[in-house]
Amino acid sequence: MSAIHVTGLTKRYGDLVAVDAVSLDVAEGEFVGVLGPNGAGKTTLLEMVEGLRRPDAGGVEVLGEPVWPRNPRLQPRIGVQLQASSFFERLTAREQIRTFASLYGVGQTTADGWLERVGLADKAGSRVEDLSGGQAQRLSIACALVHDPELVFLDEPTAALDPQARRNLWDLLSSINDSGRTVVLTTHYMDEAEVLCDRVAVMDHGRILQFDTPAALVRGLDAPARIRVAPGALTAEQAGAIPGVTETRADVDGVVLVTRDPAAVIGALAAGDHLDGVTVQTGTLEDVFLSLTGREYRA
């Protein structure tokens, strides 16, 4: 059974088609990322899958249950962290998560343990309005996970976090997924999607353009390799004369050689004793994203 089964899902706002006949399946235990520029329809899609927004067309089943009209049987089985979360006023972080936990019949000890897991034990007595943006984000995630849901939806969960907090949250999300839980997240961080996700859906203008593993998406791009040699090892002219090099670029960090035959170019560099400090970069998920969605600025 699929954890999520979506067929022909559509949402319109006047003349704007925010989600355009999207169909997809997410397997139980899978970690899926949804990528897309601002306005691509990611949040609207997730809100319909979560049962928070009524579709204009199409259908959604989550854990074998229809989500609309709002299905109370699903609420204890899913966890949702929204892009913008609201908390009860004037409550401390400990009181907030204990309140959320009580809605699901979860004890206070478990609730307090989640504060520890997201690195907020030292802020347990602080009111939410006194937390930083990143700390409030971590509290929101803890509240979404406190009842140990089977399926977790996270909308840009690391957007306000510093690099250390992001990495710690990656470890937490990986451990949740490793325990058999299904996780779906939207993110603007390509490295996050590559590290965490089994499959990635690239979305734009309300449609899913590609849905596959990060490695398969990169392979399908057929992007050239970029080989950087250390400063002083070669001039751009010398690099350009190596068979298989199609483009060179010199900067303060050395010379970059662009090629679709990296093995031959590396062999030539080795023969000339120019391998010290060499780095090789192949295509990335960011290259896939830009290839599919373009480079123009989005509002």
UniProtKB/TrEMBL annotation:
Its keywords, alphabetically, are: Antibiotic resistance, ATP-binding, Cell membrane, Membrane, Nucleotide-binding, Translocase, Transport
One GO location term (cellular component) = plasma membrane
Please indicate if the UniProt record lists Transmembrane as a keyword: no
One term of GO molecular function: ATP binding
List, for all copies, the residue spans of the domain called ABC transporter: 4-230
Q: Please give a single GO biological process term from the UniProt record.
A: response to antibiotic
Keyword match Translocase: yes
How would you describe this protein's topology in the membrane? Peripheral membrane protein
So which domain of life are we looking at? Bacteria
Q: Where in the cell is it found?
A: Cell membrane
Q: Which family does it belong to?
A: Belongs to the ABC transporter superfamily.
Q: What is the protein name stated in its UniProt record?
A: ABC transporter ATP-binding protein
Protein's organism: Nocardioides albidus
